[in-house]
Specification:
Helix content is 36%, strand content 29%. The protein is of the alpha/beta class and 307 residues long. A six-stranded mixed beta sheet has the order 6-7-8-3-9-10, sandwiched between helices. The protein has a four-stranded antiparallel beta sheet with strand order 2-1-4-5. It has a four-stranded antiparallel beta sheet with strand order 12-13-11-14, with helices on one face.
Length: 307
């Protein structure tokens, strides 16, 4: 069941189109990675989905509420971590969270503030002014603020930016836990390794949506499925024998490695190895060619060209 829907969502600033005709569905409990270069429309999309910015055309429905038109009801069921969260610097962490928690009538302010200060490792600093916090601590406080009212949908704009590796790891574990609880996470990030480890599907945007699929699905769409055979040496007899195999679609060599595209990879792999051995090749290792999410992302963005 879709909990986030975008239908033809478009935003123009004067003559510049920031987001163009975005159609998108995100299911309940899904972590969706939202990737794109700077200026691609990621933050603008989040602001429209969160009811903070009116679209020029199209519309979005989030958790059953129209994003532009039912803003108050929408904000009861979503949480937002903006790219640059702001706080009252002279107030303590506790008073900051208590102030924001006061906007929600259905929660126990003291209990929720206590819960999330402890969860984010800020309990011991609850009485300190936020102006004394590091960037990483402020980021964790911002996450606590976004979660105070137990939202169904969480929009995260670069949630681990500026965090040290330990703190970033804690945030990622929290995102996994939230998904396990059935909450939906819309994650905008430049960290491709983070996106691959956390996200069920990946959306790549550059003003318009370029691709939407699982990481593995994107790889299959953009790259050929090739078997990599590592040999002691790739002699001419081995190469000729492989070329003659009717199920070999393509063959490339890189020193002692053969990169072979097969018509039926799973069924024909043993036959390929047997033919190489019969031709005198000493097989050291057989694997599948792997492509990182970074390679997938760069191919999509580069093929699109300048925005």
């Amino acid at each position: 069941m879709a909990i986030i829907e975008a239908h033809g969502l478009t935003k123009q600033f004067g003559t510049r189109t920031a987001v163009e005709a975005l159609d998108l569905e995100v299911t309940e409990g899904e972590v969706l990675g939202f990737l794109g270069p700077n200026g691609a429309g990621k933050t603008t999309t989040i602001r429209m989905l969160a009811g903070m910015l009116a679209p020029t055309s199209g519309h979005a429905i989030v958790a059953g509420h129209r994003a532009h038109g039912e803003v108050e009801a929408l904000h009861e069921v979503i949480g937002l971590l903006p790219e640059s969260p702001g706080f009252y610097e002279r107030l303590s962490a506790w008073r900051n969270l208590a102030f924001f928690a006061g906007f929600y009538f259905h929660i126990n302010v003291s209990a929720q503030v206590t819960k999330y200060l402890k969860l984010m490792g800020l309990w011991e600093r609850r009485g300190d002014r936020v102006g004394t916090f590091s960037k990483g601590m402020k980021q964790r406080l911002a996450l606590a603020r976004a979660l105070l009212h137990e939202p169904k949908v969480l929009f995260l704009d670069e949630p681990t930016a500026g965090l040290d590796p330990e703190a970033a790891g804690e945030v990622r574990e929290l995102v996994r836990a939230l998904s396990g609880q059935g909450r939906t996470v819309f994650l905008s990030t430049h960290n491709l390794a983070e996106a691959e480890s956390l996200c069920h599907r990946i959306a790549v945007i550059r003003t318009r949506l370029l691709a939407l699929d699982t990481p593995e699905g994107l790889r299959q769409r953009l790259f050929r499925h090739r078997i990599v055979v590592h040999l002691d040496a790739a002699g001419s007899e081995v190469l000729e024998r492989v070329k003659r195999l009717t199920f070999v679609r393509s063959l490339e060599t890189d020193g002692s490695r053969l990169m072979v595209e097969l018509a039926e990879p799973e069924q024909k792999r043993p036959e390929l190895v047997r033919a190489i051995v019969e031709a005198g090749g000493q097989v050291l290792e057989v694997s599948e060619e792997k492509h990182s999410l970074e390679e997938v992302y760069l191919r999509l963005v580069r093929e699109e060209g300048p925005a």
